[in-house]
Amino acid sequence: MGSDLERSFVEQLQENQNLIHKICRLYTDSEDAHKDLFQEITIQLWKAFPQFRGDSKFTTWAYRVGLNTAITLYRKKSKTINTIEFNSTIHKVNQEEYNYEEEEHIKLLYQAVHQLNDIEKALVFMYLEDKDYGEIAETLGISEVNARVKMNRIKGKLKKILNP
């Protein structure tokens, strides 16, 4: 792959790595698993990047690849990730340290969200990222009406979990 492609990828990843960290936090419960998933999502993004045509925003595309990677990996019984050898591209991204010392109510929300199924987690994540229902629907491959209905049900579920 050409150096322009690599430069473009590293730039986009650098600007949007927080969304990948958020996906990792949603689907993992330890720092090691978080790092493994971050690396795996990065690898999947890099492998798919030559096909990225810019029909959608980079972030929408990255959400789709990241969430699909997380869901695919964590649907498996085993929580281990088989990584592949990866060239030096990943080392050109200055990875920001992720702050695990969040406020208590954020931790409680994440604990509640961890009890949801994979699709519900993805929907909540994008809702909390202020994505509109059109973008959520496009990313998850469901209708906008379905996204709204699911989100209302999820809000009810989360209220029951957080206020039993």
Describe the structure.
Pfam families: Sigma70_r2, Sigma70_r4_2. One of its GO terms (biological process) is DNA-templated transcription initiation. Residues 14-79 form the RNA polymerase sigma-70 region domain. By secondary structure, the protein is mostly helical. The chain folds into 2 domains: 1-100, Rna Polymerase Sigma Factor, Chain: A, CATH 1.10.1740; 102-164, Arc Repressor Mutant, subunit A, CATH 1.10.10. Helix content is 67%, strand content 0%. α1 crosses α3 (58-75).
Q: What number of domains?
A: 2
CATH architecture of the largest domain: Orthogonal Bundle
Q: Secondary-structure element sequence?
A: HHHHHHH
Coarse shape: globular
Distance between the termini: 53 Å
Low-confidence stretches: none
The count of β-strands is 0
* CATH homologous superfamily (4th level) name of the largest domain: RNA polymerase sigma factor, region 2, helix turn helix motif
Strand content: under 5%
The whole-number mean of residue pLDDT values reads: 80
Structural class by secondary-structure content? mainly alpha
**Alpha carbon gyration radius:** 16 Å
Report the CATH C-level class of the largest domain: Mainly Alpha
CATH fold call of the largest domain: Rna Polymerase Sigma Factor, Chain: A
Keywords: Sigma factor, Transcription, Transcription regulation
Domain RNA polymerase sigma-70 region: 14-79
GO molecular function, one term: DNA binding
GO biological process, one term: DNA-templated transcription initiation
